[in-house]
Amino acid sequence: MNKRTLLAALLLAFLFSAGLGMTEAGAAGNEQDGTAEAQRGNGFPYLNEAGFLDEGEYIEENAEEGVWRYASESLRIEILRRQTEKPKETWYEAEIWCAEGTGPRVISADPEKWKWTTEYPYKLARKTGTVLAISGDFAQLRAQQKARTGIVIRNGVVEGSRTWPARSSHFPNLDCLAIYPDGDMRVYNSDEKTAEEYLAEGAVDVLAFGPWLIRDGELNTEALDKYGKSSAQRVAVGMVEKGHYFFMMLEGRIERSRGSGIRFLAERLMEKGCTVGFNLDGGQTASMVFMGHQLCKMDNKKRNLSSRRAADILGVGVSGSLPGIEDPW
Q1: Which of 91, 135, 144, 303 falls between 20 and 30 A from 289, CA-CA?
Q2: Tens-digit pLDDT profile for residues 6-20
Q3: pLDDT tens column, 171-189
Q4: What phi, psi does 232 have (nearest 5°)?
């Protein structure tokens, strides 16, 4: 079993001195407060009232059972690999809780040369210490080709502003996902706002791909019936509320997972209670990386085949426990 559990020495000392250990029974035996008690027995060690560790870092990687977990003083993540046999599908559901005022962000390989500098997502995660990442909008390719990028903003800098009109027949239709400093995420039609309006509202990053999947808790049924209906790898991001998010990735075009249309992940996000949902680039771009390791399989034969290089990733969390850039896969 490929399972790795790391916990800071101070946290270990605290847990064992309290008689909690790392077992469900031990966790359930301590009744310090109701909020934390409700969070025990779910695979994590003791969590405080806010749902995080008091100090230190907890990492669990169990590829055999398809479970990955992370906790720190300001972040908690649980990733589950889901599978069905009829039809054959394999996907990853990453539930994320962030401390107030924090959330997912775009991490670029080189902010100064954004559209020309690319990296494999797992290597970019290692370089930046990013705990969890998924592929983004792959907008740099459109920028290199001088095509319509959609409205693209990276760390407050406008990298593209030419977009398609709303309800265009093109796919991607270049709808937008705007990310704000307080962890808020909002989705818009492709031409609903200008780059200047996003900046005036305080958006730090704007991704352009689409379509948006969920807004105000409602599915974008018109778009789901129109776009992205072929069977392929898919990636999507959702927000339940500020501080509570989902990253999802569906494998595709391999023996264990045929892939699906964009509706598949849209419905999964709705089931999880997301009020906001957005479709990101799929196909060979699609990727999910945890602690510097790519979780998803891209090929039937090549176990360590990476998704394609990109200018940036959508990630959350920072840790010093990731492997080095040249360490084994």
Answers
A1: 144
A2: 444 334 333 333 433
A3: 999 999 999 999 999 999 9
A4: -160, 175
Q: How confident is the model at residue 266 (pLDDT cuts 50, 70, 90)?
A: very high
Q: Does residue 36 carry a pLDDT above 70?
A: no
Burial of 300 (0-12, 13-18, 19+ CB in 10 A): exposed
The 10s digit of each residue's pLDDT in 101-123 is: 999 999 999 999 999 999 999 99
Alpha helices of 9-147 — where are they, by DSSP H?
9-17, 24-28, 34-37, 121-128, 139-144
- Report how far Cα 230 is from the mean position of its chain's Cα atoms: 22
Give residue 242's Cα distance to chain centre: 15
Return the closest-CA partner of residue 278 out of 198, 214, 192. 214
Amino acid at 98: C
By the 8 A CB rule, do 18 and 28 touch?
Answer: no
Cβ-count burial 8-38 (b if 16+ within 10 Å, e if not): eeebbebbeeeebebeeebbeeeeeeeebee
DSSP letters spanning 147-169: S---SEEETTEEEE---PPTT-S
Q: Are 193 and 151 in contact (CB under 8 A)?
A: yes
Amino acid at 201: E
Output the pTM of the full model: 0.89
DSSP state letter for 324: P
- What's the rounded Cα separation, in Å, for the pair 177 and 193? 11
Residue boundaries of the structural domains of the chain: 74-318
Residue 266 to residue 261: CA distance in whole angstroms: 9
Within the chain, residue ranges assigned H as helices are 9-17, 24-28, 34-37, 121-128, 139-144, 195-200, 221-226, 262-271
Res. 272 pLDDT band, cuts 50 70 90: very high
Q: What length does the chain have? A: 329
What's at 157, amino acid-wise? V
